[in-house]
Amino acid sequence: MAKNQSQLRERQRTDIKEPKRYKVIIYNDDFTTMDFVVMVLKQVFFKSEEEANALMLRVHHSDKAVVGIYTYDIAVSKARKAMGMAREQGFPLRLTVEPEEE
């Protein structure tokens, strides 16, 4: 007599959520040049020349601006890279990472 084995697989329901997103905020200071800010926005945040100039002016007039919204790891990596570039050039440029409001 052959044994018939039925293979039952129990399905587990997994709720996959989109990862939380974080804003990278750049702050105005009196020492970092506008040209350097534009260069960082283009190289680190991949902004076009027009976007970078518009963001730089927004930071200059409003003291801060959101330069991008990313997952946590990417946001922190970009902020660190930009501040590292600024330190190499002797600028006190500051960027922070904050959770995006839902």
Please describe what this structure looks like.
The chain is an alpha+beta fold. It is 40% helix and 21% strand. Strands 2-1-3 form a 3-stranded antiparallel sheet. α1 (34-43) crosses α2 (49-62).
List the helices and strands and how they pair.
Layout: E1 21-27, H1 34-43, H2 49-62, E2 64-71, H3 72-88, E3 94-99
Antiparallel strand pairs: 1-2, 1-3
Q: What is the H/E order? A: EHHEHE
Proportion in helices: 40-55%
Over all CA atoms, what is the radius of gyration? 22 Å
The total beta strand count reads 3
Low-confidence stretches: none
Classification by helices and strands: alpha+beta
Task: Note the beta-strand portion.
Answer: 15-25%
Which strands sit side by side, in order, in the main sheet? 2-1-3
Largest sheet: 3 strands, antiparallel
Mean pLDDT: 92
Q: How many helical stretches?
A: 3
Molecular shape: elongated
Q: What is the distance, rounded to the nearest whole angstrom, between the alpha carbons of the first and last residues? A: 62 Å
A few lines on this structure:
The chain is α+β, with helices and mostly antiparallel strands. 40% of the residues lie in helices and 21% in strands.
Keywords:
102 residues, 3 helices
